[in-house]
Amino acid sequence: MTTFTLTQIATALGATLEGDGDIEVVGAAEPSSAHRDQLALAMDPKYADGLAKGRAEAAILWQGADWRALGLKAAIFVARPRYAMSGLTTLMDPGPEIEAGIHPMAVVHPSAKIGDGAAIGPFVVIGRDVTIGDGARIASHVSVAEGSTLGRNTLLLQGVKVGARVVIGDNFIAQPGCVIGSDGFSFVTPEKSGVENARASLGDQGEAAQQSWTRIHSLGGVSIGNDVEIGANSAIDRGTIRDTTIGNGTKLDNLVHIGHNVQVGDDCLLCGQVGIAGSSRIGNRVVLAGQCGVNDNIFVGDDVIAGGATKIFTNAPAGRVLLGYPAVKMESHIEIQKAMRRLPRFMKSLQQDK
Amino acid sequence: MTTFTLTQIATALGATLEGDGDIEVVGAAEPSSAHRDQLALAMDPKYADGLAKGRAEAAILWQGADWRALGLKAAIFVARPRYAMSGLTTLMDPGPEIEAGIHPMAVVHPSAKIGDGAAIGPFVVIGRDVTIGDGARIASHVSVAEGSTLGRNTLLLQGVKVGARVVIGDNFIAQPGCVIGSDGFSFVTPEKSGVENARASLGDQGEAAQQSWTRIHSLGGVSIGNDVEIGANSAIDRGTIRDTTIGNGTKLDNLVHIGHNVQVGDDCLLCGQVGIAGSSRIGNRVVLAGQCGVNDNIFVGDDVIAGGATKIFTNAPAGRVLLGYPAVKMESHIEIQKAMRRLPRFMKSLQQDK
Amino acid sequence: MTTFTLTQIATALGATLEGDGDIEVVGAAEPSSAHRDQLALAMDPKYADGLAKGRAEAAILWQGADWRALGLKAAIFVARPRYAMSGLTTLMDPGPEIEAGIHPMAVVHPSAKIGDGAAIGPFVVIGRDVTIGDGARIASHVSVAEGSTLGRNTLLLQGVKVGARVVIGDNFIAQPGCVIGSDGFSFVTPEKSGVENARASLGDQGEAAQQSWTRIHSLGGVSIGNDVEIGANSAIDRGTIRDTTIGNGTKLDNLVHIGHNVQVGDDCLLCGQVGIAGSSRIGNRVVLAGQCGVNDNIFVGDDVIAGGATKIFTNAPAGRVLLGYPAVKMESHIEIQKAMRRLPRFMKSLQQDK
């Protein structure tokens, strides 16, 4: 088990250390359940009681805490606790165990170029003309299809499926089971369909003939920037002619659906079960909370933030904070909801007035 | 093909048998499509006509039915038909075929401890120091990562991915493709982000700097009780410091998303596509219908029931029956919806009055 | 790289060609980014500027366009551009590379019958008594469980899992990671549960005892017609007694959930993240936009169209165009939404009148 001295941790966090920097810990824990060899995480005064219950000798504390009075032998003080969690967990994460080298039960096409220091697990399939940068870690059951390119420090976890015509930058992380480069969901009828009529008329599907769907194939690929992470069992479709694109620094949570031709900008967060329908464009630094939906062929501007399960049907201007089905400004949504809750009694009282 | 005598079935169900108990059936069927060697399921008088159309000689019947008049040679009577379905289908389910022993094309780490009577299929990967209890059935393409522990009678179906630091009790069932122990979706900016501002102010994201997301790694694991089932392609994230937990007897349907640090109690049902955001706590016997969403960092009390696609944004007290976006009491929701449907005409009539 | 002459393309599309039919292209592109050897797709006058920027010598053009004036050497004219995309992309799609024959690292049960011309990739598992028609293409990591039958020209992409008792017609396409034939989510308590009470009373769960869930197994299978496509990481459950069914020509997008016993008709489109709860019936030519939900045990009539995230709680008559939570006619939804947005000010003004 790896151990860390407090000095090591404080240095990694750029944080202030007081007390005995030679104390060694093997991990971090909540204050009340911390063992003696664990670092208690007590960045808020509300954790003071917990510290008394637990057995930690060292802690990360809130600014101004009196560590001696709390019975500790050392303490680390950080300016922005949540940000410190990043440094601490990065330091302590053992990471997935994938043996160095290429496992004998992996099938790697002879034309594939695998960078230095790669660790490729059992039952992995790497296709023709694939290029993977230095330092790749590829867990079991992963497939990377013909012609795709992945950058340096790629981490593909168990069962990830990268299709053909996918280009991904450096430091990519793919959680188990996600699919990058499935075919777009694009079908057309020989003559105009009821859906086309209903969309044009906002509700009237007219006299469309009964007809079957013909497939539009996805000739495009998927193009992903640097420092991107994709969640477990998410799916990203290839574009029809051009690529579906995801910008630098964008993170997708689990079970997210990205339709064909979608363009997602830089530094976005798309939380669990978000869905973006085909050909929509998402700006930079957009944050969509869990279960949000974005209609097809619309534009969501830079810095838009949408609360849980917001359904965005029309273009959203930059900087807007949205909520609701259909999405409206968060303040409007809160007002409307308040009014709606009063509505039944309000209508009754008005009718009595008459 | 396995056959069952009516006596066998009645005994397994603790039910009353009338007529010839030696009749053998090979399976169950709806009355109208039942073959001669199938047991018709006709627990309601509405199926009487179906019995006449089908060819079954025996049936499970509603209380008080006259089996002779229905042309049957035998009948089983049960008190609670839906509950009887459990006994019947458990008896008749042949279960997945997984050959006994460890398939030669499975990769099992020499340090792993596999219990007695295990059946492990082809292309399975079992990591370092994994422990799996007696009677495990593990289908093809499953992976169990380093250090994880699974109890007795574990059933992992095709392509299930169990990550590191996962502890699961007895009688666990995992449907194909589900992921247990993916990394949590937890990112932080060096300075306060627009999201933090917007949440604090309910809508105003202030003057946040343009900044990228830094990753908080998941040092915790996932801890799951006994008698739990997880649906196809669902995903459960590891906790940040402590474990994400799921209690005894809880069942998750397909495509369910459980965020990091979430605690789900005992005997809950989380239906298809439900999503629980990070650090929320779900009590015991909570039932969330399909596509429900639970906000992060909130509490849903014991025995809460939420109807389809309910979005729970705030703490829900024990026993509450919820519906809507945002969730309100089901009665209130029905009232509000009625009022809303009348609203356009109501507003028009009031304006004419003026 | 495959090349196509313009004559070839025009013939495939049944379209009119003007200019030099011997020009060869290697692919299609948007006008402004087209290389010299690519066919520009400019089916609308708005693309005229793009043509000037790009380097294409040939294009598919809008009706009546003057291709010479646009600086092209040849042009193809189509009556319904979107439909032409189908023909064009079908012609140009290289398809997934799966080597002919059965890969030595596939595990195919000796009793399985694989049709002529099959291409089966590495780490595929085909179970006992499986039948797969001629011309099958099966990518890596796929499993097909015991007794299942797939028709001609089956395409199963990476990591698809077909369970036992599944019957599928011809020309089936399964995107990576989808699951066909998981167990239904069906649980019952020994005595009446709070959910049963709440559903009966629309909100009151009564005095239900605290009890655990018992499993109803899925003895049925899944039955799928011809020309069906299932999206990435979607999941389709087996029926309890009868099969879950999907009709001819129906297409499912990514992350779609189909519960046990559900019947979906012919030529439906179920878009990304749609969920259909157990035992519901969906008619023919039904189109459900992304994130729609359908309650259990209801009926959605032929030609119903539902907009994004519509939640259908009750039977929907044929031909209805729906929107909203809960679903109402699209026109009603738009009216209600307009009224709701005015509601806060409306209530305030009325109270001032008093």
From TrEMBL, chains A, B, C:
GO terms for molecular function: N-acyltransferase activity; UDP-3-O-[(3R)-3-hydroxyacyl]-glucosamine N-acyltransferase activity. It catalyses: a UDP-3-O-[(3R)-3-hydroxyacyl]-alpha-D-glucosamine + a (3R)-hydroxyacyl-[ACP] = a UDP-2-N,3-O-bis[(3R)-3-hydroxyacyl]-alpha-D-glucosamine + holo-[ACP] + H(+). One of its GO terms (biological process) is lipid A biosynthetic process. Homotrimer. Residues 104-183 form the Mannose-1-phosphate guanyltransferase C-terminal domain. This is UDP-3-O-acylglucosamine N-acyltransferase. PROSITE patterns: HEXAPEP_TRANSFERASES. SUPFAM superfamilies: Trimeric LpxA-like enzymes. Residues 22-90 form the UDP-3-O-[3-hydroxymyristoyl] glucosamine N-acyltransferase non-repeat region domain. InterPro entries: GMPPB_C (IPR056729), Hexapep (IPR001451), Hexapep_transf_CS (IPR018357), LpxD (IPR007691), Trimer_LpxA-like_sf (IPR011004), UDP_GlcNAc_AcTrfase_non-rep (IPR020573). Keywords: Acyltransferase, Lipid A biosynthesis, Lipid biosynthesis, Lipid metabolism, Repeat, Transferase. GO terms for cellular component: membrane. Belongs to the transferase hexapeptide repeat family. LpxD subfamily. It comes from the Bacteria. It comes from Litoreibacter albidus. Pathway: Bacterial outer membrane biogenesis; LPS lipid A biosynthesis. The keyword Protein biosynthesis does not apply. NCBIfam families: lipid_A_lpxD, PRK00892.1. The active site is at 260 (proton acceptor). Its EC number is 2.3.1.191. It is an enzyme of class 2 (transferase). Coiled coil: none annotated. Catalyzes the N-acylation of UDP-3-O-acylglucosamine using 3-hydroxyacyl-ACP as the acyl donor. Is involved in the biosynthesis of lipid A, a phosphorylated glycolipid that anchors the lipopolysaccharide to the outer membrane of the cell.
